[in-house]
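Researcher: Checking consistency across runs. Here is Leucine-rich repeat-containing protein 51 again:
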Amino acid sequence: MSKEDYMNTSVQEPPLDYSFRSIHMIQDLTSEEPRTGLRPLRHSKSGKSLTQSLWLNNNVLNDLKDFSHVVSLLLEHPENLAWIDLSFNDLTSIDPVLTTFFNLSVLYLHGNSIQRLGEVNKLAVLPRLRSLTLHGNPIEEEKGYRWSSSVAQRR
């Protein structure tokens, strides 16, 4: 399958869904089975998923150590990752590894423990980022949070 064909089809693929799995470390994804949905996941000949969406919500992750490496083991085209759901984990910061996925358009970080509003600035390098959720984090209490969020939405 050509890269262009992949880009046209994988947007329709169901997510690789590891939500509600009590995952503590990203490395655990390599031994964990993803949740099954109504539509089956498609895989490449090498066995990697053809999706552009990775759901890791409702786990107990507190860092993203080895994230790029593990994603490259799971996805045929990790560079095309467009949606990452990390909501409802224990993340205290926005790991710079997320800024390496330039096709990222949806990033859910709500319900974590992110405390510094300045963390959000790291994401400015993502040209396609259109949806970012941060509610339910301690940064909500920081002065300027609402203003910063509305400016980010107009980007």
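Researcher: Does this match what you'd expect to see?
Model: One thing to look at in this run: The beta strands are 16-17, 53-55, 83-85, 106-108, 131-133.
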